[in-house]
Amino acid sequence: MDIILASQSPRRRELLERMGIRDFRVLVSDADETVREGLSPTELVETLSRRKALAVQEQAGRDALIIAADTVVSLDGTVLGKPADELDAFRMLTTLSGCRHQVYSGLTVLRGEESVTVHEVTDVTVRELSSREIEDYIRTGEPIDKAGAYGIQGYGSLFVEGIVGDYYNVMGLPVCRLGRILADLGLDCMALAAGRA
Known about the structure:
Blueprint: E1 3-5, H1 10-18, E2 25-26, H2 41-60, E3 65-75, E4 78-80, H3 86-96, E5 100-111, E6 114-126, H4 131-139, E7 160-164, H5 167-171, H6 175-184, H7 189-193
Parallel strand pairs: 1-2, 1-3
Antiparallel strand pairs: 3-4, 3-5, 5-6, 6-7
Helix pairs in contact: 3-4
């Protein structure tokens, strides 16, 4: 089976491998990510993941199994994507300090006419952060390519007091949900990991 990850994210590649999927290609989507104003976080991530999958299907062909995802952070209904620069990262982290927010990932799995688009939501609580801590974190370079300006799998883990939901969703790929979708499409990840497939 020709499996394609429609993402250049090293975290998503790593998570697919952890699921037992080692034989896959990466094709980066050139989909237009402009969306109309007023979309909810759920609508936003589902729309963008579907667009990415369809754009990659045009490159790869209809026989490929395509996995696409999009992740955003939302605080009180305001969507926080990737920061534009260090100042924007500082603003985002200051906003998240001492608050509980949501991480939304849209996930689309596409093969031929079969298409599944879903979303996952995880609640994340960030402890109170000092300006110095935020500045030091930004100096590591980690926040710049992350939704909400933090990575839970890296130095940002020092700021996270707790989560409710799928941890891997916060990394950008809801692994449990994806595993169930792939199983429904005939790709059993556990059998792959056990060497039975």
